[in-house]
Each structure stands twice: as structure tokens, then as C-alpha cells.
Amino acid sequence: MNAHFDPTHGSALRLPQPYLLFLADTVDAGFAKTAFGLRDWAGDKCVGEFAIGATVSTGLPVMTPAQARAAGARALVIGVANSGGVIGDTWIAPLVEALEAGLDIVSGMHARLSEIPELAEAAARLGRRLIDVRVPPTGLRVGTGAKRTGKRLLTVGTDCALGKKYTALALSSAFAARGVDVDFRATGQTGIMIAGGGMPMDAVVSDFEAGAAEMLSPDADPDHWDVIEGQGSLFHPAYAAVSLGLLHGSQPDVIVVCHEPGRTVMLGTEGFATPTIEEAIALNLELGARTNPAIRCGGVALNTSQLDPDEAARLIAAESERLGLPVADPIRGGAAFDALVEGCLK
Amino acid sequence: MNAHFDPTHGSALRLPQPYLLFLADTVDAGFAKTAFGLRDWAGDKCVGEFAIGATVSTGLPVMTPAQARAAGARALVIGVANSGGVIGDTWIAPLVEALEAGLDIVSGMHARLSEIPELAEAAARLGRRLIDVRVPPTGLRVGTGAKRTGKRLLTVGTDCALGKKYTALALSSAFAARGVDVDFRATGQTGIMIAGGGMPMDAVVSDFEAGAAEMLSPDADPDHWDVIEGQGSLFHPAYAAVSLGLLHGSQPDVIVVCHEPGRTVMLGTEGFATPTIEEAIALNLELGARTNPAIRCGGVALNTSQLDPDEAARLIAAESERLGLPVADPIRGGAAFDALVEGCLK
């Protein structure tokens, strides 16, 4: 890849679509989360699935790479993971088959596609691209803090891994359903595959973190919204740098704070207490005001997956009353979620 | 280098010392700042200088690479910069001469040593190292936030480029002069060359920023101090991510806030006002408390290079009175600086 023209130089990643979803030999649905996420959130960009012995299925049409190419597919996406994030030996022949059929390959695995000699050789011979979505584009710039046109919403969290991507996707869909001109802006590997582009913020060199976020959501029409997937948490002792660079560079007009009731310790730490929702609102507004003094909190997204429906509804109502803000679980939707959407757009 | 054993894997950089300072063909002293900084702050680690037509001099003995090797030198350091950060064609033969004499090469230039074929070939043939101090070590880990033993001081700033490195060096020297067991911990290229090691924090991938700072200042004896060179500013719209990761990972017991009176706009930005000293103290203490609840401000370092001695003395006294903290210009030293040192150690 290095010796070729890089279409992502100086801009966010852009992926070839639509996709053929590769399920490999996966027998555990938990390892096919990427494929299921793409089916659920980017179903119109997926022409079919392709497997070599998998027992899981997305329900999409089964196709060979050549059939998928004939149906319009531009890339094969590795839609599965395994415990080491490695590309199995038995996957290589079908991946070469996809390259030969005219498909690029998109991967979010830890292993780099270009470091597998058979794939590198075939891609070079055929003029195909091997795209690792964990690898940032080249040509990143340092941030300027200059105000950009258009409107921006960023999902932020009291912690990692509690629904920032899902909330951003759900808000983007709801905005679009109301006729709002909106783009979902992805910052992690699954989100990037769903959106067909984005910026892998956690893999960007620190000096360019805010600048990369600026590139991810460029100037837009005054009524256009970018809904930006958050990363990490300002309160996390490992990942706050990612969160602050993303907050400064996104210069959001609106934040939505994502929280999981009952989580008391920050993910992957020993003894770091999760902040309260109020603390998370206050610190994100305080720091975000540096690049957008008009920043405000549009509401709170609760991940109530551990609660039964009645408990969830009671908690959502009580938290909304307590905080004086719209509160909803985007997965449960309903009137509470409509109120959250309105709270963001008002 | 990639195919060889990497002695820095999983730890901070460590450079071979002592040095031979390479001045190349430099005629403008401003471009020899690295060499002068090494002479001033690491003079006992510099055996001599080597030039190919330079008119500037550090005053150290003039030596060939072979003479320097015989005098104990382990590495040639490129002690100069030019406007593009490039390694000139006329430099290559003398650099190969240094490799052949048994010296490694250390560079902080933008251009990578290993990407110059003649140098890469000679280093591989001779078993020598080409060390770019802008390149982080391999094997970085994500942060844990776990409390480490020993004491830590971090210099922080209202802005970039106003004396955080100089303040940390001066405090380290003053601690040592008082018999305190202390290490200067470098986070930028010049500091790393002075210290003979460190972590280029602005070049670390964001996900590892706090973890890299944790690796830079490991567990130590209870009375040992790490004095850590700060980077950027929490208030800078481009670089705050670097500053927050460094703050969280350093978990300082004491911060010293560095400020340049009269600077009103953040470096490299259009219209971002510099914060007040009080704002910088408050935000660094607020965010630093996440990983060290006992964090406190030891005082303020003013860069008064734009003032005459009387003006500087009056301002230092007035600011100390106003803030209720020790305030000093480390370059001017004196009783005010002694009070700052005592304020940090108390």
C-alpha cells in the first residue's frame, strides 16, 4: 500500500461500499458481532454473506465473491473476530479469491492485512486495496480550534463501553427520520465500517488527536448535523487523552452523556469509581467550552440492559426528573427517546 | 532496526552516552540550539564536537569520530536543525564515518535516519543503532492508574513553549544540590537527549498516552523524586490531549505552573486567549486529582525574559503576594527560586 496513491491522505478514511460480509468459519455468534452490527446499521450497504464453514448467519443472501462483485459489491469485510484478532491460515485462500474477483478487503482485526505476504502480493498484482480500519489515514494535521460551520453532537460517557456508538447511531437515525440533514461520524472500527468511513481516534498520535477530530467533521451547511461517536471518558485514567482531543476537535454544540446504571468501577481499572452523571455533564461542558463556548447538554442516554422494562421505565423517569433533562435508553426508544431527540435539536 | 532486538521494548527510551556533538555545516547559532542545550545541561556527557564547515562552536574539544570513540563516546548526536528538519546530503559521509568508528547515531530531526539508504546499510553492516528520539519505544501499554511509589513533580503550562523543560531541569538540579534523590524525566526530543532517555509524549498513540507516562516514571523509593517535563497545555485546542494523558499518567504530587507574562494568545492559534495562572492551577489540580487526590501546586515559574531585571523582580514579588504561592523565574534564580524549590519539597 505504501508505494501507491493513498486516497485517504489528508482526510478521514473512506471505505469502498457496498460490502460482502465474510463470516469465515465462525460457530459462535459472539465472534460475529461486526457482521451483525453491519447488517443492523448498514443493511443497505451489504449485498450478502460469504463463509467457509461458519454455522452463524446474518440472514443475508449467501454469495461467492464473484457473485457479490456482479451484485455491485466493492469490498469484502471481515465480519468476525477471534480471541487473538488474528487472520486464520484457512482464510487466506478465500480472501485471495475475493481480491481476484475485484473486491478490496476491509479489516478491523489486530493483525495487519498488508503483513500477510499472500494478501500483499495478490493485492499488488491485482491493484486492489487492503484497508485496516485501525490504521489512521496519512496527512493528519494539528488542530487549530478554528470554528467550523454546521452543527455537531458528540456522545460522551461516564466510562468506556456503555453505549456511545449505539446512542450516536440511534440519534443519527432519529434525526434523519425527522428530515434533518445528518451524518454519523465514526471514531472506532465498527462504527467506521458501518459509516463507510471515519477516524480511528484511539490509534491517532496524540499531537494530532484534536486535529484528526477536526478533519472528521469538516465545515458543513448551517443546518447540517454531524453526530459524532464518542470514545473513552474524561474520567478514565487510561483513555482521557483520547476523549479530550475528540471533545476539543469536535467542538460540539450538544453533548449527550451516556451512562450505565449500576456500574461503579471504571472498566479495566482497580478502584477508580465511575463519576456521577452530573460530574460527567459538568466536566464535559467545562472542557468543551474551550472550543465551543455555546456547548450544552442535550440529555442523557442510559444503558438499562441489566434492568427489566418496568424498572427501566421508572429509573428513566426518575433520572429525568432529578436532572431536569431528557433521559432515555436508545435501545428501548419510546416517548422518552423522542424527548431526548427533541432536547438535542431544540 | 525492525529486525533487530529493540532494547527499548516495553520501557522508556535509553540513549547511548556520552555523546559527540555533530554541528554539520551550521553558520547560524539559532540552528545549533540542541548542541548548546546538551553542553549546558549534559556537559559531563559530551566528549567533544565534530563539524564539516560549521562556524558555530560549543567550545568543547574538536574531535573526529574515531578520536571521540577513543575518548569514550558511544553516540554521535545531530546537534543542529535546519528549517526543514532534513539531513543534508553532505552530512551522510561524516555520519557513515561515525558509524564506522563505532558510534551509534541519535537524531531529533523530522527526517528518519533509517529511511536514508546509506545510513541504514552502514548501520546494518556494522551492527550500529540509528535512534530517532521522535519515535516512541515499542511495547507501550495502556494506563492502569495504579498508584506508584516515590514522589513526582510535573511542570505544566498556561501555553506551549514558555519554559516547562527549562523549569524541570532547573528544579531537578536544585533538588540534587539539596541532596534529594532525583531524576529528570524527559518528554520531548531535546529533553530526551539531555537526560539520555525519556518518552516522546507527543508522538505516542493516544490510547497509550497515559500508559506511556506511567512507564516513564516507574515505582521508586519513597523519598525519590521524578521531576517530569511537561508538554503542551490543557487549554491548548491542539495539544490538550497530550497534556491530559501526561498529567493522568504522571500522577504528580506537585505541579509547578509555567507562564509567560504578556502572552495573551495561545501559540499557533487565532484568538484563543491564554488562561490566567489561577485558571491553570485550578484545572490541573481538578483533573490531576483523578489519579492523585493529594496533588498540590508547589508554585509558579515565570518566564520573564521580556522584562528587565527590576521589572522582573517587582512582578515576581507581586505575583507571589497575589497568589499566595512561591513564584520565581528559574533562569534568574535567586532567593525567589530557592523559595519555589522549598515550596515543592515541603
TrEMBL record, chains A, B:
Q: Which domain of life is it from?
A: Bacteria
Residue ranges occupied by any D-glutamate N-acetyltransferase-like C-terminal domain in the UniProt entry: 142-335
Q: Which InterPro entries match?
A: DgcN-like, DgcN-like_C, DgcN-like_N, P-loop_NTPase
Supply the source organism for this entry: Sphingomonas cavernae
Every D-glutamate N-acetyltransferase-like N-terminal domain range: 57-136
Annotated SUPFAM superfamilies: P-loop containing nucleoside triphosphate hydrolases
One protein family per Pfam:
DUF1611
Protein name (database record): DUF1611 domain-containing protein
